[in-house]
Amino acid sequence: MNLDFMADESERTLAAFFSPMVLAVLFHGIWVASALLLLFWPRQALFHFLGPDHQGPLTFFLVLAATLIITSYINLRCGRGEIINTGMFSEYRKEAVATEKQRDFFQYALWVFLLHICHLMIPYAPLFVLAAAVSGITWSVFLKALSILLTASVLCRMVGFLMYLLWGRFRMEGYLISRTFIIVFIIVTAVFAPGLSPLRVLYGLQSGMGGLGDKHDMGSYRSYMSVAVSIIVFLMLLCQILIRRHIHREIRS
To answer: 28: domain range?
Structure first.
């Protein structure tokens, strides 16, 4: 695989791994999550929270929830190719076609996206471990929480990429639909569809039934994961179809 996309800041790549803009966004996200970890660090030792009538520290949930919101929004923008220096008034000129649109999705873009998502999440790992330790989170809950974070990132990346394939980087339609999606995904589901809300499922994983995450709601987790994975697979197939249509159109022309 050509690895030029890792440092290429031109419009030929949707989101370079080590471009100053991507690294700046990543740094600010880590700063916010770190500030929350310090702000909600429990003032008492963990054993004070033990017992059926006590709720464990919510530090883990708050750090993971903030990270989920931040990384979901970043991946939405990266999928659409927004975090790149395209210059002023770029919407008034013809944009360059990204490499992800010129190669088979399952052979190129999918692996680039997964690598980039890991690149954006790995720096948060020490914060996750610290938050889990001070909140008494079990390994089972910890891994399930990470899977929610991962599926949310992949889902938002795929939605952003679909908007790019349909309208490119600069069309207002793609901008409005992508922002509407993330509002529905993060906020609306938390109010009207708790079983499909990543934030509500994260909270349920930690709070459970008053314990420290050992009796979490498996039904909500399974329903969220099944719906999220199904939508991701559907979006991947749709993106594959759109890319192949573009490639065939380019060959004929």
So the answer is: 4-252
